[in-house]
Please model this.
Amino acid sequence: MQFFSKKNTITHFSADMKSVYTIEPGETVVVETHDCYGGQIADESVLRPDIDLSIMNQATGPFYVNGVKAGDILVVEILDIELDPSGVMVMSKGLGVLGDLVDEPSTKIVPVKDGRILFGDGLIFPVAPMIGVIGVAPRKGSVHCAVPGDHGGNMDTKDIRAGSRIYFPVFQEGGLFALGDLHASMGDGEMNGTGVEIGGKVKMKVDKREGCLLSVPVVETKDAFMFISSAETLEAAVQRGAGIVVEHLQNALALEFGEAYRLLTMLCDVKISQVVNKLVTIRVEVPKSLLFKLFG
Amino acid sequence: MQFFSKKNTITHFSADMKSVYTIEPGETVVVETHDCYGGQIADESVLRPDIDLSIMNQATGPFYVNGVKAGDILVVEILDIELDPSGVMVMSKGLGVLGDLVDEPSTKIVPVKDGRILFGDGLIFPVAPMIGVIGVAPRKGSVHCAVPGDHGGNMDTKDIRAGSRIYFPVFQEGGLFALGDLHASMGDGEMNGTGVEIGGKVKMKVDKREGCLLSVPVVETKDAFMFISSAETLEAAVQRGAGIVVEHLQNALALEFGEAYRLLTMLCDVKISQVVNKLVTIRVEVPKSLLFKLFG
Model:
């Protein structure tokens, strides 16, 4: 099994970026990733104002997947996420939804051991490992790794975890995917601006699918397909996600608009992924009891 | 067990409303409710533009709970929700997040039988009964039953279902609670503006708690406490809910602000309840692994 180290990373997902690694469709690989600060925080004396933000959320890659063309779908199945032995949580004035209430910047190192997060003061919680940044080269231009979009990127969606499969629309030859920004745990919303930020190794199977259409990334879990939508406000992201799902239901199940809209409101949950990045992200969850297969 | 019919309802939760029913703390009762249209939709020929909206979301009550005072907490445990044999879904231009795409108004009657929703065209789904409107008299003024707030009201939160317990801050003597607007099923967001709207009977145990402080309704499920926050935008509702939860965690667990803020981002999900009422509603879910009891 090929192992790819974190020495090659990108700070932007760009339409014209050059791949550094090549893999075959169907291949299972292990990819090492930095924490979102690129390892800049060695101890609790390093505060957020000291950090070089230009390299935030860097992602290991890009990977060229042989035979993948624009218009295909890249399918990434997350098999396992192995976390480093400690994570970090920073806080700083203005960070997160209550950022105005933060006085002094502070950094907390959080040990992670035997699948548990040792928060301190007797507070111990199970890890819930997830991938914050994962994406492909966008249709055009260049998107910083801290920003989400239809190419993926910093979606901060906690269902992107072991056992999930992610479908990306492919915009450039080879797909050119990259990933990073693991969290040992994060709640929906990422309300203070960070999860338990951590590096690690991700075992994943990468494959392709041809002849199907998708406009945004979709996460498949055991029970649902989640359509990911990012926009400037939650309201706009919800509206966009709802429109994409209704159109998908119409096509997949041969439904009139009205019937698909009713099934959306009756059975589909819109969930917040994150409210703290430059664009915010929601996911519309379509249960498999309604949509058995993503494509007909 | 006392049974209370739907013949007495309110269209507004008002600070000065008069109770029509009286019960004792600790009593289990059955309350009959209209659907959100007050039974105005007899068949599919009745469209939303034909409906008297002033009586939308009417709630059965108000109930005076003996011995309950302002400053107490009213605890309502939902034991069972029995649904009427059919629900209704209306659609109309402008309704819901994709309302601009709706051309003609339409009404769909949806039979509900043996715990299943018979949507039509072979589509059958299990019911997921919930209460859309439930609340107490507000601190001041008068709030239409179609609007949510700190008194409860039209929260459209699908975790308000059998097996859940809801804690309300009490603003007026006797609490003066009322409820209505059941749904046979609704996804988080209530994205087209309605669930499967239906009448029914709710079996519930009503009790009180003294000497504890709460500023918003809280829903307790098997695994979590959910703090409900409504505001003009999702962003504002999230910020307000996060602030309330952090303060609660600080008090309940004797934590500094920073530690509570970190635990919020790491473990608590912010979830969308509804995006279609005059104020939108979110809930911040605090897992019991973090907060074992709501009050110390």
Remarks:
- The mean pLDDT of chain A is 97.
- Chain A is about 10% helix and 40% strand.
- Chain A touches chain B through 53 residues (CB under 8 Å).
- The CA atoms of residues 70 and 171 of chain A lie 5 Å apart.
